[in-house]
Every structure is written in structure tokens, then in C-alpha cells.
Design a protein that fits this description.
The protein is an alpha/beta fold. It is built from ten helices and nine strands. The chain has two domains: 169 residues, P-loop containing nucleotide triphosphate hydrolases (Rossmann fold), CATH 3.40.50; 70 residues, no CATH class. Helix 6 links the parallel strand 6 and strand 7. Helix 3 packs across helix 4, helix 3 runs parallel beside helix 5 and helix 4 packs across helix 5. 38% of the residues are buried. The structure holds adenosine-5'-diphosphate and magnesium ion (MG). Adenosine-5'-diphosphate (ADP) binds next to helix 1 and helix 10.
């Protein structure tokens, strides 16, 4: 067997918040490609993505992303990856186009290149008209789409998409699927979290299922179905996650800061 350098190489990764151990010796390895992390609400998907993408530190374990340590090689890794969540990393005072130009500059693209690629992305997400207006006038859905477009402009080596299509209308969701597929075909690796089984099945080369603090299954959709004798990926998911569904503090994606303040409030 020939091995290229793994995209993600994680071994015995643990992370707790207070006494709550969210990730317990998580171990997996993925080659370059388009992969999906499935897991019930509160399973720790966002926590894992935040660790992989340098945003938070693991308590223990070994993590390599594109061969780099997210903490020790943070700067270098940040120049190779792009990450988006359900919150918009967007400047509200600027217009969509201005945000786009800023992002392009950040990634060293020329203005012309940014306008060309940015224009196409804005069109794709139905933001062409809105692009002239300040983001403060956008709806939540529009901000989210702009956030995604901004994330895609840099065409980095690896993109983390944390529940990228949650809350999007069907049309935008399908447009995003197309973008993701096109990016992957062009050689960008993608690690996405999703609660939509059909999304994982439609897009991902390999699927990881996170449950009870660990990876309980890993493989292609076909492999997972075969292994569990299940007809659909939904049956696989239900079979793997039926025990003690992690209903503890099941929060949809919020920023770490928001979570911290929530916890601080409830712990008092
Ligand atoms: N900064 C934080 N402080 C305290 N608890 C947190 C923090 N971030 C996440 N958690 C908790 O860790 C668990 C996993 O959260 P998360 O990674 O957001 O799961 P998912 O993305 O799979 O829904 C949840 O119980 C959540 O409340
Ligand atoms: Mg999440």
C-alpha cells in the first residue's frame, strides 16, 4: 500500500470542559480528500474542529494537520487552512464586496483575482445585489452565505466547514454542495461536520461517526452500511448512536466564547 502524508492524523486526543470529558482518546487518520464528521448534537464535533483548526488546545494526545501541529505550528497551519462555522467572521460595517476584497488581500490575492472569484461566489450564493450594501443590513442567512463565500475565496489546502448548510434554504444548500464538490475535485481537502446523513453520503469520501467521546465508526458510506448490515446510512447512524444519546447540553454551533459564558452562567 502506498501512503501519502495523512491529511489528519489524530491519536488519543482528549478534551474536557471542567469535569465534562467531551473527547476521550479520539484516534483516527484520514488521507487527503473530502470527509464528513457525523455526530449527534453535543457529541463534540465543533470542539474537534476547533482543535484541528488551531482555535483551541487539546488536553492530551497527538494531533497533526497537513503534517503540522496545530499549536506548535499555528501560524504556518493557519496560512494553509480556512475555517467557517455557524457564526459569521464578517465585518458588519463593510459591504459584502468590501469584506471580499479584505479577505482576498489577507490571502495575498490581487484585487482583480479577488473580484473575479469573489464575483462568481457572490453570484452563486445569490448575494450579487446585496454585495453593495453593508453587512449590518443582511439577514442571518445572508451573513452565513457571505461567511461561506469568504471562506471559499482563498482556495486553501484544507477547509473546515462546521455544519455549513444548517439553516440554509434548499437552493443555497445545493449551491454549496456544488461548490464543495468542485473545490474537492480541484484538489482542496475538506473536513465537514454535518447532522445531515444525506449530506455526508452525497459528498464525503469517508465518514467518521463521533459518539460518546470517541470515533465509533469510520469508512465510506458503503463500507459502513455493509459493516452494520444496514440498508441506509440513517440506520447505521441510529445503530451507532442509540445508546445514551449525548443530550447533555446539546448546543448547536455557538462560538467558544458564547459557550464559555453559557457554562460560566450555569456553573455558578
Ligand atoms: N467552551 C466550552 N465550555 C464548556 N463546555 C463546552 C465548551 N464548548 C463545548 N462545550 C460542551 O462540549 C460538548 C460538545 O460540544 P460541541 O463540540 O459544540 O458539540 P457538537 O458540535 O457536536 O454539537 C457539549 O456538551 C458542549 O456544551
Ligand atoms: Mg457543533
Amino acid at each position: 500500500m502506498s501512503y501519502t502524508e495523512p491529511l489528519l492524523d489524530v491519536s488519543r486526543l482528549s478534551k474536557s470542559f471542567g469535569t465534562h470529558r467531551v473527547l476521550d482518546q479520539v484516534t483516527f487518520r484520514l488521507p487527503p480528500g473530502l470527509h464528513a464528521l457525523l455526530g449527534p448534537n453535543g457529541a463534540g464535533k465543533t470542539t474537534l474542529v476547533n482543535i484541528l483548526s488551531t482555535l483551541i488546545r487539546a488536553d492530551a494526545g497527538r494531533v497533526r494537520v497537513l503534517g503540522l501541529d496545530p499549536q506548535a505550528d499555528q501560524r504556518r497551519l493557519r496560512s494553509l487552512i480556512s475555517v467557517t462555522g455557524q457564526y459569521a467572521a464578517v465585518d458588519q460595517r463593510l459591504t459584502g464586496t468590501e469584506n471580499m476584497l479584505m479577505m482576498g488581500q489577507l490571502f495575498g490575492l490581487s484585487r482583480a483575482e479577488t473580484r473575479r472569484r469573489g464575483g462568481r461566489l457572490l453570484e452563486r450564493f445569490d448575494l450579487t445585489t446585496a454585495a453593495a450594501r453593508p453587512v449590518s443590513t443582511y439577514s442571518g442567512g445572508m451573513r452565513r452565505k457571505l461567511d461561506l463565500a469568504l471562506c471559499l475565496i482563498a482556495a486553501p489546502q484544507l477547509i473546515f466547514l462546521d455544519e455549513p448548510t444548517t439553516g440554509l434554504d434548499t437552493r443555497s444548500r445545493l449551491a454549496l454542495w456544488d461548490e464543495i464538490t468542485a473545490l474537492a475535485r480541484a484538489g482542496t481537502s475538506i473536513f465537514l461536520t454535518t447532522q445531515y446523513l444525506e449530506e455526508a453520503e452525497a459528498l464525503a469520501d469517508r465518514i467518521l461517526v463521533l459518539h460518546d467521546g470517541g470515533i465509533v465508526a469510520e469508512g465510506t458510506a458503503v463500507e459502513l452500511k455493509e459493516r452494520l448490515g444496514a440498508a441506509t446510512l440513517e440506520d447505521v447512524f441510529l445503530a451507532l448512536t442509540e445508546t445514551s444519546a449525548t443530550e447533555t447540553g446539546a448546543t448547536p454551533n455557538t462560538t467558544p466564547a458564547e459557550k464559555t459564558s453559557e457554562k460560566a452562567g450555569s456553573a455558578a
